[in-house]
Amino acid sequence: MLAKDVKTGTVVVHEGNPCVIKGITVNTPSARGAATLYKFRARNLLTRNKVDITMKGTDNLDEADFARREVQMLYSDPTHLFVMDKENFQQYEIPIDDVEEELPYITEGLEGIRAMIYNDGCVGLELPTAVELTITQCDPGVKGNSATSRTKPATLETGLVVQVPEYIKEGERLKIDTRTGEFLARA
């Protein structure tokens, strides 16, 4: 695939390793005849290292031979997260360190989790863009402060702390964006 056609979330092969594209920056030259440069911020799925890739728009990147499978979280222990493929019931063991960014959004029964399978092994998880979580601790709003859009911290059931509007109360379910970690709406 051409570098100019690569989108965020695409899994490509770079230097023999599968990398998922996390961010794209386009540098358009001001001189005539100069090529547009595409700078990709990626994460190597095997070593978990960040990788910077710079290419011209007409350069080729190979798409990784990769499968995304719908999975369900079974349980976790202090070192691993265990998920099960919903189609063939195969279980995958993922080190907690490999899913550290996704962990604050995962609860039992969460729908829409997809495992990234490479060479018959799970190398990462993809979460839905929004998840519903319950507030476990939140300070009450101060009466009379509703004229401005002030926020307060709220601790969710997974331990994630997000900023929410002052009118939100403890025990409510919220929609949280898994890409940014921000409050979206009440559920």
TrEMBL record:
PANTHER family registered for this protein in UniProt: ELONGATION FACTOR P (PTHR30053), TRANSLATION ELONGATION FACTOR KOW-LIKE DOMAIN-CONTAINING PROTEIN (PTHR30053:SF14)
Keywords from the named record: Elongation factor, Protein biosynthesis
Organism the protein comes from: Rhodopirellula sallentina SM41
Listed GO CC annotations: cytosol
Classification via Gene3D superfamilies: 2.30.30.30, Nucleic acid-binding proteins
An annotated Gene Ontology molecular function: translation elongation factor activity
Translation elongation factor P/YeiP central domain mapped to chain residues: 68-123
Family, similarity comment: Belongs to the elongation factor P family.
Keyword flag Protein biosynthesis: yes
Segments forming domain Elongation factor P C-terminal: 131-186
Superkingdom, natural source: Bacteria
GO biological process, one term: peptide biosynthetic process
Keyword Nucleotide-binding assigned: no
Matching SMART domains: EFP, Elong-fact-P_C
Name of this protein: Translation elongation factor EF-P
